[in-house]
């Protein structure tokens, strides 16, 4: 993550680089890949841009403070799907630990793809893995899939639906749903990302609107050794006196103890001041 947000205008091949308050920092032009739908940060200066036609374009967008025009010929074209309608791929995200690309297809039918980047810089055609049937897994819950983002804390993904006005927390291998967040209003929700180290969410919508969702920061309450002992008691005795599920895996385990110990020792991982 680089603490910046990127907003795509597919009609003119424009990408706006913004800070986490959505102040535009610079304009990046020349990204005329067709019907671009989403962008994900890969590493250093490398990004992936997905199109509704079924291509992922991978290339470098160098850091800077001035507007820049890109050359599309410097991007690698990875074709993973063939779509000739307006129901193709909509969102892309990246798991940097396992180096996996995840992509959601909008509808008719809904789809979920995963693959690793190929060992070539040349344009290429690949067959992505489909770990589960999205139509079956999300039946009655999601009417379409419009965006996706990877959650480093859990190894799962958050998937946004425009038609259903909700976000689901999904295991990317099984399609199991761990949580649902219903969104307010009647906006056309199109984009989803974490915007700070506290994993607060920003959801963008058409036309040119956004909303932020923040969660309470539990570390205000985790300030002395008694909390560690209380959590240890929960773990060993099965009590529910202070069940801090700090890694969001829906259970209290040794990992929560390790995270709490880090917090009490001054780790900035859960920094409520940001």
Walk me through this protein's architecture.
The chain has 274 residues and is mostly beta strands. 10% of the residues lie in helices and 37% in strands. It folds into two domains: 5-213, TolB, C-terminal domain (Neuraminidase); 218-270, no CATH class. It contains three helices and 19 strands. It has a five-stranded mixed sheet, with no helix packed on it. A hairpin with a 3-residue loop joins β5 and β6 (55-60). It is globular.
Secondary structure category: mainly beta
Please identify, by name, the CATH architecture of the largest domain: 6 Propeller
- Average per-residue pLDDT, rounded, comes to 87
From the alpha-carbon coordinates, what is the Rg to the nearest angstrom? 20 Å
Shape, principal axes of CA atoms:
globular
Number of strands: 19
Distance between the termini: 15 Å
Low-pLDDT sequence parts: none
- According to CATH, the homologous superfamily of the largest domain is TolB, C-terminal domain
Physical arrangement of strands within the biggest beta sheet: 4-5-6-8-12
Roughly how much helix do the residues carry, as a percent range?
Answer: 10-25%
Strand composition percent: 35-45%
User: SSE order, as H and E?
Assistant: EEEEEEEEEEEEHEEEEEEEHH
Helical run tally: 3
Name of the CATH first level of the largest domain: Mainly Beta
Kindly identify the CATH topology of the largest domain: Neuraminidase
The main β sheet shows up as:
5 strands, mixed
């Amino acid at each position: 993550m680089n603490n910046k947000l990127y907003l795509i205008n597919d009609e003119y091949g424009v990408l706006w680089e913004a800070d986490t308050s959505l102040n535009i920092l610079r304009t990046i032009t020349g990204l005329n890949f067709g019907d671009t739908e989403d962008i994900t940060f890969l590493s250093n200066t490398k990004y992936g841009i997905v199109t509704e036609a079924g291509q992922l374009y991978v290339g470098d967008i160098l850091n800077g403070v001035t507007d820049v025009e890109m050359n599309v010929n410097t991007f690698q074209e990875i074709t993973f799907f063939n779509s000739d309608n307006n129901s193709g791929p909509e969102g892309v995200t990246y798991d940097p630990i396992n180096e996996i690309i995840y992509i959601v297809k909008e509808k008719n039918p809904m789809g979920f793809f995963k693959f690793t980047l190929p060992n070539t810089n040349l344009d290429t055609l690949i067959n992505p893995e489909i770990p589960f049937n999205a139509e079956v897994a999300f039946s009655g819950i999601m009417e379409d899939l419009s965006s996706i983002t990877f959650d480093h804390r859990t190894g799962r993904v958050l998937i946004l639906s425009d038609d259903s006005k909700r976000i689901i927390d999904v295991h990317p291998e099984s399609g199991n749903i761990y949580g649902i967040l219903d969104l307010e209003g009647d906006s056309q929700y199109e984009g989803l990302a974490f915007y700070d180290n506290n994993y607060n969410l920003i959801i963008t919508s058409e036309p040119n609107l956004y909303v932020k969702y923040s969660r309470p920061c539990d570390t205000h309450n985790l300030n002395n050794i008694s909390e560690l002992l209380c959590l240890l008691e929960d773990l060993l005795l099965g009590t529910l006196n202070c069940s801090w599920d700090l890694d969001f895996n829906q259970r209290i385990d040794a990992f929560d103890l390790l995270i709490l110990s880090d917090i009490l020792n001054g780790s900035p991982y859960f920094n409520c001041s940001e």
